[in-house]
């Protein structure tokens, strides 16, 4: 992408359309307007749903080999334009160019996995004769599409999280309406273009941009919408759940992820993993490391090494190869993080490094002695700040790890398999990474959390199952002669 401002259309049932009302897309690096996208109206949403209803029949009628072909062609189209996608991610969002390239590669993998899952989507035979009186019955179940899905995605992974909605939806034979984050819609439009070029029938996919306060209710309450797949904050997730009515919900609502470092851990590995896990994408990552509990025998050594590594982190221009971390998505978000840190410091927290803001940039920050009652301990920071705490033993670390409303993923560093399994059994999370930080995920694994971290699981295979339903078929046979 260049610095020239562009006018971007939205995809309405396979047709690119404009609107008189627009929303600015702003590069957080310098507050430059790089694009204008349509501000969809309620009427636009109603039209998208009407088209989507027709699209459900078209999508369901696609054969398995057609779904595989479309998904494979879309992945190939993206792969040939890898640099374009990476530049778009880096330009409109917070990620550095190196982080953006990784996201593009993951997106390609997500869509290829979706093609594989389209092939593997099947049912099983059922032994009806297990019940007395049913000896003359045979049958099976198979999975059928759920119908029209609304996918609402955040800014922090503007390409791959959209792929995690569209890919499984198509693999399962559904139609889908995507509402990307208004601050990072360009990657979603590029992904939609890939599917159009791959031969996806027009009415199967819409990607619309607009203000949630204006169009959100129509998207989530319309009775024709049979599932909402949402990734975002807890408050928005709760509001959707209250309004949605009788439809399926899949929600990934963030976290406040803990990591535990025990005395027998490889400190070099732990420091590197936790540094990356804390500051990847400027800390705007639902899996990002937020709280670290370090056993007292290594607390001072670990803390010194982590601070030294954090001070080496290079903050600056997202498009430069040497940059490790860019800005937050808006200056408003950087100010929010600044407030959280300052409030914690007023309560007695110590800032070992960072703690400074420049426009939308907030320096990588390490805090210690943070009171348990502080907001920054209890809530999701969603910024480049990590909290360190000294513990005597594993049970104390587990208790503190579980003492929040979230439970997405966690990490533990130890070479003692018994300690690892104690953590596995006792930590209230949807995933636990051994000798890795909480910030580890592959796109094929089940992904989701407990408590207020969400409902259901993503990860392509698991998303396809969420987006389909089992139908039972039973034959009563005539008496054998």
From TrEMBL:
<dbReference type="Pfam" id="PF00171">
    <property type="entry name" value="Aldedh"/>
</dbReference>
<protein>
    <recommendedName>
        <fullName>3-sulfolactaldehyde dehydrogenase</fullName>
        <ecNumber>1.2.1.97</ecNumber>
    </recommendedName>
</protein>
<dbReference type="InterPro" id="IPR051020">
    <property type="entry name" value="ALDH-related_metabolic_enz"/>
</dbReference>
<dbReference type="InterPro" id="IPR016161">
    <property type="entry name" value="Ald_DH/histidinol_DH"/>
</dbReference>
<dbReference type="InterPro" id="IPR016163">
    <property type="entry name" value="Ald_DH_C"/>
</dbReference>
<comment type="function">
    <text>Part of the sulfo-TAL (or sulfo-SFT) pathway, a D-sulfoquinovose degradation pathway that produces sulfolactate (SL). Catalyzes the oxidation of 3-sulfolactaldehyde (SLA) to sulfolactate (SL).</text>
</comment>
<comment type="similarity">
    <text>Belongs to the aldehyde dehydrogenase family.</text>
</comment>
<dbReference type="GO" id="GO:0008911">
    <property type="term" value="F:lactaldehyde dehydrogenase (NAD+) activity"/>
</dbReference>
<dbReference type="InterPro" id="IPR015590">
    <property type="entry name" value="Aldehyde_DH_dom"/>
</dbReference>
<dbReference type="InterPro" id="IPR016162">
    <property type="entry name" value="Ald_DH_N"/>
</dbReference>
<keyword id="KW-0560">Oxidoreductase</keyword>
<feature type="domain" description="Aldehyde dehydrogenase">
    <location>
        <begin position="16"/>
        <end position="473"/>
    </location>
</feature>
């Amino acid at each position: 992408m260049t610095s020239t401002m562009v006018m971007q259309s939205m995809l309405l049932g396979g047709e690119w359309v404009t609107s008189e009302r627009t929303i600015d897309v702003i590069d957080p690096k310098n507050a430059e307007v790089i694009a204008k996208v349509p501000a969809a109206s309620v009427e636009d949403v109603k039209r998208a749903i009407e088209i989507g209803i027709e699209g459900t029949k078209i999508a369901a009628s696609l054969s398995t080999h057609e779904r595989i072909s479309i998904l494979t062609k879309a992945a190939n189209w993206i792969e040939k334009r890898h640099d374009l996608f990476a530049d778009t991610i880096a330009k409109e969002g917070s990620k550095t160019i190196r982080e953006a390239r990784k996201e593009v590669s993951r997106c390609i993998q997500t869509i290829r996995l979706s093609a594989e899952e389209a092939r593997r989507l099947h049912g099983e035979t059922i032994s009806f004769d297990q019940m007395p009186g049913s000896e003359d019955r045979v049958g099976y179940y198979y999975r059928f599409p759920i119908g029209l899905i609304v996918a609402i995605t955040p800014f922090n992974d503007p390409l791959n999280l959209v792929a995690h909605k569209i890919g499984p939806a198509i693999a399962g034979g559904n139609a889908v309406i995507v509402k990307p984050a208004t601050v990072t819609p360009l990657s979603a439009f590029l992904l939609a273009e890939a599917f159009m070029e791959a031969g996806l029938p027009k009415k199967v996919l819409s990607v619309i941009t607009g203000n949630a306060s204006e169009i959100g209710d129509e998207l989530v309450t319309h009775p024709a919408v049979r599932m909402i797949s949402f990734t975002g904050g807890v408050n928005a997730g709760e509001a959707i759940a209250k309004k949605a009515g009788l439809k399926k919900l899949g929600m990934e609502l963030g976290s406040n992820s803990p990591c535990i470092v025990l005395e027998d851990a490889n400190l070099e590995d732990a420091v590197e993993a936790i540094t990356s896990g804390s500051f990847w994408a400027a800390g705007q990552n639902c899996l990002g490391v937020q709280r670290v509990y370090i056993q007292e025998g290594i607390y001072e050594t670990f803390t010194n090494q982590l601070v030294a590594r954090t001070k080496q982190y290079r903050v600056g221009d997202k498009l430069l190869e040497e940059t490790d971390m860019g800005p937050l998505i808006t200056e408003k978000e950087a100010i929010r993080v600044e407030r959280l840190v300052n409030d914690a410091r007023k309560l007695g927290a110590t800032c070992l490094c960072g703690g400074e803001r420049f426009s939308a940039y907030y320096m990588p920050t390490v805090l210690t002695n943070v009171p348990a009652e502080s907001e920054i301990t209890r809530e999701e920071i969603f910024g480049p700040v990590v909290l360190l705490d000294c513990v005597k033993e594993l049970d104390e670390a587990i208790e503190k790890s579980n003492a929040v409303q979230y439970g997405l993923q966690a990490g533990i560093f130890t070479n003692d398999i018994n300690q690892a399994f104690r953590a596995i059994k006792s930590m209230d999370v949807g995933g636990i990474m051994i000798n890795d930080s909480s910030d580890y995920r592959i796109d094929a694994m089940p992904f989701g959390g407990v408590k207020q971290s969400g409902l259901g699981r993503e990860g392509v295979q698991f998303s396809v199952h969420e987006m389909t339903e089992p139908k039972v078929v039973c034959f009563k046979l005539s008496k054998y002669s």
